[in-house]
Amino acid sequence: MSNIIPLDARSFLAPKYWPLWLVFGLMRLSALLPLRWSQALGAGIGLLLYRLVPSRRRVARINIRQAYPDYTEEQIRQLNRACFRSLGIAFFETSLAWYASRDYLRSITVVEGKHNLDEAAANGKGVILLSGHFTTLEIGGALMCLQTRLNGVYKKAHDPFFDAMMAHHRSNWGGNDLLENSNVRGIIRGLREGIATWYAPDQDFGDQDTVFTPFLGGMATTLTATARMAEMTGAAVVPFYQKRLENAQGYKLVLMPALENFPDDDIEVASARVNKAIEDMVYANPGQYGWVHKRFKNRPPGVPPIY
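The structure corresponding to this sequence follows.
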């Protein structure tokens, strides 16, 4: 990005940060591996996590059962395992996103529906690039920055060293600005300046400005911010997702047509349309979605907990 966030490495030399230094060193080395090798290693690590983290395995199973009520237990298990394999591969994809050259990333990327983004951007009022929390999220952000000048929106990590490293590398992707999700003014300003903005609102944000709308077989808290930002700025909303291709053939960015006549007058209807757009992406690429997140932790009044 043009505004690269500097990394003050001297602030993280204390022994408590040494394990993360080791992890980042391994990530840098893993970016040199052939894609087939890194994905095979990642899949193995993911299956190990499937065995070692039963709490998240259970969360994913509950989410999948709700989204696919007709699935057998074996089908649920297979999709659950696919999710964990994808989580393992995501470690190596983060390495690629942070350390691989832009020319290499271009060489392993195909784009479907780029005209949808170009048409939406032609009005000069900005574009909200609406996506979901797929396990391929990190590599998807880097690949999208190869297609258009954009602002990235992210949530701060709990660990200060990881947060600093993540912000530094994401800001180095060649886009525009990297904005915390709490920086609403910055997000609005960017859209009004005609800058595309990456935005993934498909997590449970508790008691923020949300409404309950249908999502993946249940009722989920849904941020109204997408609709409100579109209303305030006139920005188009273009859903997109990234897909890891089979047999280590690279990645595909899929850009869908902009939501028509959005936002609706009713904020709940507009928010439900946002959820439906993300839901369609998940059903199109279920094995790479982040099913391990407690998306339905907050429930409508009177509805018992799901987890």
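The chain is about 45% helix and 15% strand.
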